[in-house]
TrEMBL record:
Organism placement in taxonomy: Bacteria, Pseudomonadati, Pseudomonadota, Alphaproteobacteria, Rhodobacterales
Superkingdom to which the source organism belongs: Bacteria
PANTHER family named among the record's database cross-references: ACETOLACTATE SYNTHASE CATALYTIC SUBUNIT, MITOCHONDRIAL (PTHR18968:SF13), THIAMINE PYROPHOSPHATE ENZYMES (PTHR18968)
Domain Thiamine pyrophosphate enzyme N-terminal TPP-binding residue range list: 8-112
Residue ranges annotated for the Thiamine pyrophosphate enzyme central domain, each copy included: 205-340
Keyword Lipid biosynthesis assigned: no
Any one GO molecular-function label of the UniProt entry: flavin adenine dinucleotide binding
Record domain Thiamine pyrophosphate enzyme TPP-binding: where: 407-555
Protein name: Acetolactate synthase large subunit
Repeat listed as a keyword: no
SUPFAM superfamilies recorded: DHS-like NAD/FAD-binding domain (SSF52467), Thiamin diphosphate-binding fold (THDP-binding) (SSF52518)
Amino acid sequence: MTDPKPHIGDLVAEMLAKSGVEYVFGMPGGQTTALHDGISRRQDRIKHILMRDERNAAYAADGYARITGKPGVCDVTVGPGSNLLPAGFLEALNASIPMLGIIGELPLDWLPLKEKGIASQGYDQLSFFKTCSKEAFLVPSIAALPELIRTSLRIATAPRPGPVALIIPHDIFDADWDMETLLTNVDDRSVRTPYLRSVAPPSEIDKAIELIKKAKRPVLVCGGGVHGANACDEVTAFADRLGALVVTSLSGKGSVPETRDYVAGVLNPLGSKAAIDLVPEADLVIWCGSKVSQNTGMNWSLPTPEQATITIDFDPLEHGRTFRPTVPLLGDVRSMVQALDAALGESRADANPEWMARIAEVKAECDKVKAVEMASDQIPVLPPRVMAELDKRLGEKDIVVSDASFSAGWISGYLPARQTGRKFVFARGQGGLGYSVPGAIGVASVIEEGGRVVTLAGDGAFSYTIGELATQAQYNMPIVNIVINNGTLGWIKLWQEIFFKNPQSCALEKQDYVPGYAAAAAGLGLKGIYVEKPDDIGKALDEAFAHDGPSVVEVRIDDRATPIHSFKRRMREPEDKPRPRPGTVYKLREWKVSPDL
């Protein structure tokens, strides 16, 4: 039997493999079958992971890209496959994550028949993806395809990284591949981000150093750009000598070890109260790889008019987007921090003792409150107790993937980043529910041997992508999925109660219907464990971590627990009991809006 004649699907697979892409996440369709055929003949270099839903293919590619720095690649077919990608594309676009979406299309000569689905599943995909991508291309010919692949990877990884849609018509995909003339060499500079680094002029660096040396209460805010520039070690070395408070955004968590005395955690309404309290007291704020979004900027109350500011970013459009920086430093984060550290001269670690004392004071006060929450024996369980048990079991190779909503707050505020690096993955580009389970698939595909991926999601977020548990089981991935189940859409219920006094359409169960997520997981081939009591959490996590394959640990939690400090309620202790017994059910007051809680 002779080998089949090579086709353009082989060409695409070959160029991806030569570009260092190890996995493609997606779902095949008739228009993209040639791609999967090409991948199948290159299993030693590139593999396909079959997802259950196309939107989750983008999330898995996103998770892969965040850990590796390489473009995450997903594939979908025309029409109903492609129109599920925008949620993942927008997440990657807003979070500056390199991604390549390979999208099937109807044959080129069917162009007049796309409208209204006259040709089955047809619509104007190019215009559609122009709205949610860094760039989008429709391949016009076989000859143009190799260069468009190379161009797409270059754009995806170039500052500022983002997703690129490459739309390939069916007749091009299935065409013969002339191996002698059509293969274009890949550009090894665009294999991962960042492939270009630059630095601001010395005169601007001198202005920044002058501000730093004058400051009495400086703060360094580290955003996701620190991870994007692979600059954690350089930023930590700079922070050790800076004599400043250091906080991070959610995406920047792990830029520096949170075990350092000068680090106060995540600056976000869902994050650290110490960070929220201390940053407004600063006289200089250095925004390092942070776009100063609504959340990191605390609804743009930061920086205050009195604070001097330095911005470090390779995107010129970020300097001045929401405020006018005192000194804008246009350049790659790692290169800029190295230049600042060299120009700083002698260490200023002991230059601001009063500021360091203030940081220690506020952190100690906040740590006392956290310690009580994390040791709570309350039933239903408080999420900080879950985080306390999880923290004891996380190893250096493990990676935590957060879903949106309150899960991000429980992770950011109660799980310390003990080492540098992207050990925490947050879906903050869009903040959409349903990221963690498919995102973990992308992370697990490249995690170090012996490492585990741990996801945290509420029952609402977990419901979005429960079908991808079957994917985790099929590939026997080392993933521990933790579901903190409060039976409701917690954030929406909080919002409705506070502002409308009438929570509606947010209950996920009723008296005679309580979904079982651990049981559903067991039915899909995972290990499922259900927990109601605080003392059983540790045992359940031990069992899940020891399991050879994916698992789900479902924990029933207090339906009014929130990590948002301004919305936390004061708890009424049980009467006549100095300390509650294990299993005590707390009676809790109504929501109390108070910024000083």
